[in-house]
């Protein structure tokens, strides 16, 4: 079981259409506070773009729409898990990624045999307010020892300069949000990320 080393997260299909063609092979669409029609339209457009460029689309949270729209990968946070029908997700053939922040959440995630486990925030993040402090690289290493062959995704405050440390701490993949979308040149930043992750094999 493996996933690409680089895993950006975008909040619209516009970002995906703009940046996936640069060589991104795994991307998450994470939409919050949108109506049903808009969410469906965003998923459909993102799926179309990803299919054209050999990129795997991961839909955050909206597992029912992901099933109905024929997607093949879903990401759930711990709160999403409280209401998600994981057996239905599996019956539909979707792969499943899960967020974790502490040992109890990790135990819960492992019981569901996910296709990757994300740990965060590795560093302080401006994306959203969280009750967890920065996890640090040492926690990444401990998580990887615990989860074994399951891919480990490092997320939270990640930058190109911090990527090497995450990989050295045995993360299989680095996920990034604001380091790209808030950059003055998102295209160039994606290119830097791809080069940094490719250098790690």
Topology, pairings included?
Layout: E1 6-10, H1 13-19, E2 26-29, H2 36-52, E3 56-60, H3 63-68, E4 73-76, H4 78-81, H5 86-91, E5 95-100, H6 103-110, E6 116-119, H7 137-147, E7 152-155, H8 160-168, E8 173-176, H9 178-181, H10 186-198
Parallel strand pairs: 1-2, 1-8, 2-3, 3-4, 4-5, 5-6, 6-7, 7-8
Helix pairs in contact: 1-2
Secondary-structure content class: alpha/beta
Radius of gyration from CA coordinates: 16 Å
DSSP strand count: 8
Broad shape: globular
Overall pLDDT: 94
Tell me roughly what share of residues is in helical segments. Answer: 40-55%
Q: Quaternary state, please?
A: single chain
| Estimated share of beta-strand residues | 15-25%
Distance between the termini: 15 Å
Unreliable runs = none
**How would you spell out the order of helices and strands?**
EHEHEHEHHEHEHEHEHH
Strand order of the largest sheet: 1-2-3-4-5-6-7-8
| Number of continuous helical runs | 10
Please outline the major beta sheet: 8 strands, parallel, barrel
